[in-house]
């Protein structure tokens, strides 16, 4: 084989995965959102006062927070799937959502009398929050992990954990439309426990299924 033919063959070989990745990730994203939506509407659905609630700052913040978590995890997941690509330079973006939440919690602690802190932190739906976020997110997590297998993640546990964060952000965005506990204190504790479950499952899934 001539050198020129070899170069063309290598270019063609590398072009196919790029094309496939360009197709498979949008399909996977759409499937993940669809699965989360089906589980959400089949089990709990939005709160009855969702229209009025969306006009309040605390409810709006919940969506800002959950979407920020998903948005910060997404580029790391995509980078993890590319062979030879290092996602570590994107990792600091994962601090964006926690910093937003920390600011909201600090504001709540300043604005609300201390005797109300415990009531707002515990809320009314803490048990359902811990259960429903993983329930809504487990399907999207499975889809993301399956799509990562199509790529070549070199750090399977890290890639799986970030996939869990992405699934967490997606699941929590749906759950936030149902949850009537709008305090950042509640979100900081109980949403985070749900995220920890999905992140742990993602790391385990990465260890088991993303190894070369």
From TrEMBL:
<keyword id="KW-0472">Membrane</keyword>
<feature type="transmembrane region" description="Helical">
    <location>
        <begin position="63"/>
        <end position="81"/>
    </location>
</feature>
<keyword id="KW-1133">Transmembrane helix</keyword>
<dbReference type="InterPro" id="IPR009495">
    <property type="entry name" value="NrsF"/>
</dbReference>
<dbReference type="Pfam" id="PF06532">
    <property type="entry name" value="NrsF"/>
</dbReference>
<feature type="transmembrane region" description="Helical">
    <location>
        <begin position="93"/>
        <end position="113"/>
    </location>
</feature>
<feature type="transmembrane region" description="Helical">
    <location>
        <begin position="21"/>
        <end position="43"/>
    </location>
</feature>
<keyword id="KW-0812">Transmembrane</keyword>
<protein>
    <recommendedName>
        <fullName>Anti-sigma F factor</fullName>
    </recommendedName>
</protein>
<feature type="transmembrane region" description="Helical">
    <location>
        <begin position="189"/>
        <end position="210"/>
    </location>
</feature>
<feature type="transmembrane region" description="Helical">
    <location>
        <begin position="157"/>
        <end position="177"/>
    </location>
</feature>
<feature type="transmembrane region" description="Helical">
    <location>
        <begin position="125"/>
        <end position="145"/>
    </location>
</feature>
């Amino acid at each position: 084989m001539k050198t020129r033919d070899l170069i063309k063959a290598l270019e063609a070989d590398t072009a196919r995965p790029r094309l496939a990745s360009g197709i498979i990730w949008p399909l996977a994203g759409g499937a993940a959102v669809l699965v989360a939506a089906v589980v959400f509407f089949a089990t709990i659905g939005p709160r009855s006062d969702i229209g009025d609630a969306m006009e309040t700052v605390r409810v709006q913040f919940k969506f800002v927070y959950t979407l920020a978590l998903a948005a910060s995890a997404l580029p790391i997941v995509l980078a993890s799937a590319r062979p030879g690509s290092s996602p570590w330079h994107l990792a600091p973006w994962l601090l964006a959502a926690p910093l937003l939440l920390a600011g909201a919690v600090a504001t709540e602690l300043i604005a609300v009398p201390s005797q109300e802190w415990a009531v707002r932190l515990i809320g009314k739906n803490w048990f359902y929050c811990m259960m429903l976020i993983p329930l809504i997110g487990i399907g999207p997590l499975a889809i993301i992990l399956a799509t990562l297998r199509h790529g070549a993640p070199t750090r399977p546990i890290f890639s799986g954990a970030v996939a869990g964060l992405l699934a967490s952000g997606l699941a929590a965005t749906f759950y936030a439309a149902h949850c009537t506990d709008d305090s950042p204190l509640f979100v900081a504790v109980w949403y985070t426990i749900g995220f920890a479950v999905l992140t742990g499952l993602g790391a385990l899934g990465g260890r088991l299924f993303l190894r070369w």
